[in-house]
Amino acid sequence: MSIERRGLLLAGAGALAAPLSAPVLLRQAQAQTAPAAAPAGPAPGPSFYRFKVGSFTVTMLHDGFFTIPVEGFVANAQLAEVQATLAGSFLNTTRLTIPFTAMVVDTGRHLVAMDTGTAGINPTSQLLPANMRAAGIDPTKVTHVVISHFHGDHINGLLTGTGMTYPNAEVVVPAAEWSFWNDEGNVTRSPERQRGNFPNIKRRFAPYAGRVRQIADGAEAVPGIRAAAAPGHTPGHTCYHIADGAEQAMFLADLTNRPELFARNPNWHVVFDFDAQLAEAGRKRMLDRVATDRIRVMGYHYPFPANGYMAKDGAGFRFHLADWSSAV
Amino acid sequence: MSIERRGLLLAGAGALAAPLSAPVLLRQAQAQTAPAAAPAGPAPGPSFYRFKVGSFTVTMLHDGFFTIPVEGFVANAQLAEVQATLAGSFLNTTRLTIPFTAMVVDTGRHLVAMDTGTAGINPTSQLLPANMRAAGIDPTKVTHVVISHFHGDHINGLLTGTGMTYPNAEVVVPAAEWSFWNDEGNVTRSPERQRGNFPNIKRRFAPYAGRVRQIADGAEAVPGIRAAAAPGHTPGHTCYHIADGAEQAMFLADLTNRPELFARNPNWHVVFDFDAQLAEAGRKRMLDRVATDRIRVMGYHYPFPANGYMAKDGAGFRFHLADWSSAV
Questions:
Q1: Residues with Cβ < 8 Å from A322, sequence gap 6 or more?
Q2: ipTM of the complex as predicted
C-alpha cells in the first residue's frame, strides 16, 4: 500500500480514481470527516488565512492532507530516530499527516496562484476549491499560475475535470523543470517512482498550450515574485521570493517536506526526492538564508496556515508558525 | 495610556465605551482591518477550529486580540530579556498582541461554553459572535456556561448589550471566585488595578440571578468537565479538565498569558496577576503535569487555534501548537 500511495502522490490521482468511483470517494470523505457527536455546525471549517507582504495580500488555501506510514518515509534515518523526532513535535509516530496548502498572491496588479492543489489525490484532499470560494477568490480572475515543480500534488489542480481551472491565466514554470519533464528521453534516466510524472504532466498542461511561459532562475514570474532555484527534489524545483517595498517572504514549496522532520534535520532525505544529495545542499543553503535574514516562509506541506519563520537550533532549524492575526 | 488599557482589560469595556461612540469604534475597527490592496474576498476569514476529545467535540472560537506595550508587561523581568524572548518566538518586541479564544464543548449531552469572550473590549476584539455563527453554534442552545475567572475579557460576553447572550444556560463558576468578588469587603484588600472588577462582575452576572451554580475544586461542571483550581491570577482562577473515554485535555484559561513568555519562563509574572507568587506556584505545578502526561491544552491567550502541547525545555516549557487538521 505505502509504495502505491507514494507513487500516487507523485503521479496524480489517475490510478486511484480508476478503481474507485466518485460516489465511493465522496462517501469515504464523508465518513472520515463527519463528527461522531451531535454536530455543532460545519465541519471542517474553512481553512484559509491572509497576511500582507508590503502591499501584497497573500492568501493561504488549505487543500487537505494525506497520510503515509512513517516507516520508510525518511530514506536515510533510523525509524526510531524519526519517531523520536515526531514525538518531540507531538505528531503521530506511525502514520504521518502531510498537509497541502497552496496560495494566491494579490499584488494589486496581478492575481497569482502559486501551485494548484491536488485536485483530489485522496479522500481527505481537494479542499482548495471550497476554501478559495470561502476566501472570495474567483479562479477565472487569476492572471498567473506560478508553479514550483511538477509533482502531481502541485500541478493536478491546473485541471478541474478535463477543463482549465484558471482559463484566463498565463502559466509560469521553471525552465529547468519544463525542459526535463518534456524530454521523453529522461523517462529511463528517472527513478522508477518518478516515471508516472511524465504522462501526468503532459495531461495537466495540455489545455494551457501556447500560454506556458518558462523562466530562468532569478527571473520574475510577475513584478515582485522571483524564481529562486532549489533543485534536487525535482530537477527544476524552484522556490519563489516575494517582495514589496521593504517586506519580503519566501515560498519554499517542497524545499522541505514537514519542517518538524526536514528543517530539524536538513540532512534527512524524503523518499520523494529525485536527487536527494542535490536537494540537501539547496535545503541547507536556503534554510540558512531565511533563518539568518528572518524571512517569513511559506511551505506547501507545512502545518496550516503554513507560514512562519525558521530559527537555527543545533545542527538544524526550528519552524515557528507566524502568530495568527485576525487583522489582515 | 498603557495603564488605562490594562485597567480596561481587567474591568471591562465600560470605561472605553463611554468616551467613544459606537460609530467611532466601528470606524476604528474598519480602519484597522480593511485590506490596503484590491481585496480578494472576506478579511479576516472565519477563525474557528474543531477537534475531538474522545466523543466530545471542542470548537475554539477566536474573539480577536488586544495589543499592549511590552514595556512593563512582565512585572519581574528586565525589558531586554523579555524582548529577546519575544524575538526568539518571532513576536513583536515593542507591542505585544494578546489574542482571545473562548471555546464550546459539545459533550453530546450538553453544549458547554467555556468563558465568553470580551463583548468588544477594544476595536480588534468581539469576533466571537460572528465566529460562533460561522461555526454553526446557536447561543440559545448552550446548556451551560463555565467560567474560569472573573476578569472582564472572560465574562463580558455573558451579556449582549444588556441582555443575556446565553438565555437558556446555567452558569457554572468556581466557588472561591464567586465568594471573593461578591464580598464588598474585599475591594480595599485588592490591588488598585483589580478594583474595577467588582462592579463589572455584578453587572455581568445580574441577569443570570438564580441560575449561577458554584462548584468546588475537583467538582464536575457537567459530566466530563471538572474544575482544577489554579489560583493566583485571581483568587479563584480555575482550569478545567475535559475527559471522555481514554482521551483528555486541559483548559488552562489564564494559567499563563502568552506561552512564549510565561510557559518559557514560568517564574515571570504578568502584570494582571492578583497574587503573582501563588499564580507562579500553580503554573509550575500544572505545566509540569500537562507536559509529563502530554495532555492537550487550550489557553485563552494562546495563538489561535489556541490548543497544543507543552514540552519541558530547560527551566521552562515550550508550547507546540497541535497539528492543524481539516478532518474533525
A1: A51, A296, A305, A307, A308, A309, B90
A2: 0.88
